[in-house]
Each structure stands twice: as C-alpha cells, then as structure tokens.
Amino acid sequence: MKRLRVMVLMDEELVPPNSIVGVSDEEMLNWKTEYDVLVTLRDLGHHAEPLGVSHDLGAIRRFIEEHRPHIAFNLLEEFQGVAVFDQHVVSYLELMKLSYSGCNPRGLMLAHDKALSKQLLTYHRIATPRFAVFERGRKIVLRRRYTYPLLVKSVIEEASLGISQKSIVRTDEQLKDRVAYVHDELQTDALVEEFIEGRELYVGVLGNRRLQTLPIWEMTFANLPSDVANIATRRVKWDTAYQKKLGVQTNAAEGLSKAQKLAISQLCKRVYRALSLSGYARLDLRMTPEGRVYVLEANPNPNLSYGEDFAESAESAGVSYEQLLQRILRLGLSWRPYWY
Fold first, then answer.
1. How far apart, in whole angstroms, are the C-alpha atoms of residue 219 and residue 185?
2. Mean pLDDT, the chain, whole residue set
3. Which of 22, 33, 91, 207 would staple 305 via disulfide (CB 3.0–4.6 Å)?
4. Strands (E) located in the chain
C-alpha cells in the first residue's frame, strides 16, 4: 500500500501523549486504542495525525482543507457526548467526500439502536433474545407477565455502560428498579431481554461485501462464584483488579465442532448483512448448553487495541496487528455508498 495521509479521528479527551515513558498500563487504558493505532500507522510508513473532536464538526473540515488526507481512520465512539451521534460524523465525512475506516452511517444507526436491530434480526428469522423496551419519561408499567431472569440495559449505550450483576433481575420489583436506574442514571430508554444462560462468544467480521469471519472467541471466568452470572459487566471489561479476582480470560473458544464453527460463521455474516454493516465489527453471541446460539448485539468499530479480543482473534488467524490495520484502511478506501 502506498504511503497515505491519514486523519486519525478520535475524542479530544483521548488524544494520546507523544511519549508513554513512565505511563502505567492503567493510566493509558482509556486512550490505548488511539495510541496503538496512531503509532502503528506511523510505523507502517503512513503520515498519520490525530484529530480530537467532541462538539465541533468545523474542526474536521479545517483539518481536511489544510492537510488533504486520503482517509479518516475513525475511532470516534460518540459526539457531543451522545453515543449514537457518531453516525452523523461519518455522514459528514461522506458529505466531504472523504474515505473513512469502519462502518457506514446506516450500519451504525441500525446496530446502535439495539431494539431496532433486534426487530430486523427477528424479521430475518435470526435467533435473538425476546425483548421489550421501556421508554424514558413514561411510567414504568409491567403490561404482561415476564419469564425471569431478565437482563436490563440501555437501548443505545456501548462498552457495557450501566451493566452490572444487578442488571439481571428475577422479580417484578427488581425489574422496575433496574429500568428506573437506566432511565435516571443513563438517561436513555431501557432494553429488557430474556437472559440466556450459556457461553459468551464473540466473532469478529471484516469486509464490505465479501466477508471474512475471524476465529470464535470466548470470555471465561476461572474463579466465578456460584451466585455470580458470567456476563460482561462494566467492571469485567474495564476493572483490571476485578478481572484478576474473577480470573477473566478471552481466548479461542474450545470444544466447538467444525459444523458448529461453520454455522456460527454463516450466522454472523447474515447478521452483518442484515444490519448493513461495513468495514469491521464484533458480534456478541450466547450459546446455550444445548448448543442453540442467540445473537445479543452487533458492535461496529469495536475496540482495536493491540492485545484485545478483535486483534488477538485476527492474530490467531495469521493476521498481524499491522496487517489488520492495513486491511481496515483498504476496506475504507474501497467502500462506496450506493448513492455515490
């Protein structure tokens, strides 16, 4: 690949320092992805410059006019503090006729709205947990009998924000309390879905129209207490001390037959296409003890940190971190919305 001018787009609070000398792993945790991507792109010979934004699209326009980048490497997860506004930033990049890495605006919109994505998956007869939405600003009324346990989470937030062991509810009162928590603390609608007992699986997908699935990854808990559910809570994802306490690991899923792996790969490609995704994404699944697979959600533009699930899964398939970023750049350069 020729040397590219790359605008590495990120939240302005996550722009990494020029040097990490003396910086601990915990201190760099919040901006590790941004640092890893920026440094690796430079090591590959690209002229990569960070652009931190939060509220002003004009900063993007000024950067484009001054630096004339070939592509934006999009690491934004929100805009103006709103998770779903990242899709508008990508729409703006399309208006500016600038290529970008990762998912297109339509795919971001469909995947971020967990209720809408579940409706689409149901239409395509793809198994997903049964669900209901409790809208913020309306009285919490249980209009039917629910089969417990249930999992309560935000309908739009990512990175397990607001998810804890208390998110699993087993009574009407617990359900009301947790829905109220999502409304009050996260300021979003609440998604209530049946809790699927089983294995927590992750599958990375790369591609625009021709898709490649990465090896199936699994989150396991070596020291999980009997009264604690094996779910990816906020603490499990981001609290290193808590991870060590529970013995949290993510590795290639073991014990799956060739037929099961093929079926899961085909399932993930169906989901990817049904939600109009492009670039790269990670699909979160649950597999019951009987082998039935449910799609929990799709995560476009997942964590790209070196050593994290997506990159590790690619590495196990023979794709180095450097090759992975090059592949993502190529996919961004080749993506063309159908209205172009």
1. 27
2. 93
3. 33
4. 5-11, 47-53, 71-74, 99-100, 131-134, 150-154, 168-169, 190-194, 199-206, 212-213, 217-221, 248-252, 280-287, 293-300
- Alpha-carbon distance 169 to 283, whole Å? 24
pLDDT at 174 over 70: yes
pLDDT band at 338 (very low <50, low <70, confident <90, very high): low
Q: How many CB atoms lie within 10 A of CB 128?
A: 23
pLDDT mean over 67-76: 97
The Cα diameter of the chain in Å comes to: 60
Q: Which residues contact 11 (CB under 8 A, 6 or more apart)?
A: 52, 53, 54, 75, 76, 77, 78
Whether 103 and 111 have beta carbons less than 8 Å apart is answered as: yes
Domains assigned to the chain: 5-101 (3.40.50.20), 130-194 (3.30.1490), 197-334 (3.30.470.20)
For residues 48 and 16, the answer to whether their CB atoms sit within 8 Å is: no
| Interacting residues of 43 by C-beta distance below 8 A, sequence separation 6+ | 322
Tell me how far apart the alpha carbons of residues 260 and 293 are, in angstroms, rounded to a whole number.
Answer: 10
Instruction: Indicate the DSSP class of residue 137.
Output: T
DSSP secondary structure string for all residues of 96-115: TT-EESS--HHHHHHHHSHH
Instruction: State the pairing for strand pair 131-134/99-100.
Output: unpaired
Q: Summarize pLDDT for 305-322 with one digit per residue, the tens.
A: 998 999 999 999 999 999
Q: Give this prediction's pTM.
A: 0.92
